[in-house]
Amino acid sequence: MSILDKTSTRAPKELEKETLKEETKSNACKIHELQKILYAQSKYSLLIILQGLDASGKDGLVSKVFSGINPLGCFVKAFKKPTEEELDHDFLWRVHQYVPSKGMIHIFNRSHYEDVLVPRVEKYASMDVIKKRYDHINHFEDLLKDSGTTILKFYLHISREEQLQRLEERKTDPKKFWKHNDGDWETSKKWDEYMAAYEDIFKHCSATPWTIVPADQNWYKEYLVAKTIKEAIEKMDLKFPEKKTLGLKF
């Protein structure tokens, strides 16, 4: 049985929704406080990678968990279809320029993993090319970690039934019309191919581990992601810089 088949897309029944929503607020506040020190110290950085199928809730997650973050210390990059210029370079070129500098939190809404998903499913690249890209991704992430960047990788695990319901809402709910894209429906038809591609990603690119996040219920998804981020930042050796004194030389 595959990793995703073994993982539920919903919260355990014994958990209380309102309790966890309050914990999410608390964790978000803690992230906000820790981010101040991270930014001031300017020694470490954090890269958060969000992957998931269409309608898995990546945008909403960013809005909910990072609503209180100081914009000076946080940056969100959504990776879409590569431009002609980006296609003229190696596949990591467009990604590397957006990794966080010291003191920063960067969030990738989709990421370099799209380059071993879409080209594989749509047959733009051979499996030999895809397998080489796995190695390049692992080396790339090792480079970032060696440079003081903590990497957190989240896969938002939505069920097929929930995805179809959310895609339908984009056609019927006026507040969600702007999210509708006919291409999402075509991609949804290739569900099994994308699941197989993700399973290989988990198999070959997990030196930096993935967190599989049940995503059918937003409140549980937000809770798990906020908790994981808070705990990761707490493990950093964070401290405000010492007071600088002006030394006069004669």
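That was protein one. Protein two is written in the same sequence-then-structure order:
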Amino acid sequence: MRRQGLEMEEHIMQELRERIRDAELVLVGLGEDFEYDWNALTSDGRYREIAAETGAGPEYVWITPFLQKMVLQRGERDAKWSGAYASLEKLLAGKNYFIVSLCVDDYIYDTGLEQSRIVTPCGGFRQMQCDMNCSDVLSEVPSDTCLEVAKYYNGELPVSALREPVCPLCGGKLRFNQLGVTRYAEKGYLAQWERYTKWLQGTVNKRLCVLELGVGMEYPTVIRFPFEKIVFYNQKAFLCRVHETLYQVGDSVGERSVGIAEEPVAWLRDMCL
């Protein structure tokens, strides 16, 4: 059921705070609509210059992810995301929780949330892999490449001086370990996924609060469908789904759920204001 109106919205927020407070465990899902808005980069004049300079050459497509990583490391992100994660930290303080995130921006790893309680199955910017996954080996992000790209951004190097990183084993292209490469190396998240599945086993017949934020239909089998199934089988569980358009919850969980038609990042930020 869709909830709307300022008075009703505050009522639902208060109810959710109480459910999280009273829950024995809390499961959080962050979807693709929680991802950092990469379009914000176009407000950077230098980024637009780089896009114009490298756009005509497919040999330079590898530069953009390094620029994205550089921006994320500098912390030049919208305060909306900072406020949202700060709210999430407050809500989960002292709780037994686990977070499944489809975001590849790695923002969550720069917060005070426990990394041992986070799994990001779509990957991120923390490791690199062979584009063809020739040996299922992950490698560190080459610091010299990061430095060269930063110098290029600052106008200290021409684009022709940049060297695309290559796989040390087969000489192929080296890419960030993210879903979307030619052959994604799932090794990067599988250990944490196993930890997550073991944590789920401990939620059976426990008071579980499930908070789903910005999860659409791009990868519904990772969060959206499994979360509903978890709540269906656990009669002590409650699901809150927040999404601008896909806030609907299946009839199978009935009164033990609420769907909120709001932009998820701003909504979470406002939870603890």
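The helical segments are 6-22, 45-54, 63-74, 79-92, 143-153, 187-201, 224-233, 264-271. Keep this in mind for the problem set.
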